[in-house]
Recover the amino acids of this structure.
């Protein structure tokens, strides 16, 4: 197993779900094309890959990529073994 930074996992899922190429930490999920169905898919993918429980309200209230990365890091730590 190799260790991967949480940020890399979150960015990869963000790109896949939203179809964006170069997301930045200030990008808002809903402003770049996300909707409630994509939010559910995104959170499900994060929970599966990181083995965490991710509160959906974080995405709706603090929906930037940076906020999502920070919330995931708080739940997992800095890296995850994949």
């Amino acid at each position: 197993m190799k260790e991967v930074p949480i940020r890399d996992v979150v960015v990869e899922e963000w790109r896949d779900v939203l179809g964006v190429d170069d997301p930045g930490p200030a990008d808002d999920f809903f402003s770049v094309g996300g909707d409630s169905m994509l939010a559910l898919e995104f959170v499900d993918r994060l929970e599966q890959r990181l083995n965490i429980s991710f509160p959906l309200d974080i995405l709706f209230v603090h929906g930037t990529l940076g906020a999502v990365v920070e919330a995931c890091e708080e739940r997992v730590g800095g890296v995850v073994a994949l």
User: Anything to note?
Assistant: The CA atoms of residues 25 and 66 lie 4 Å apart.
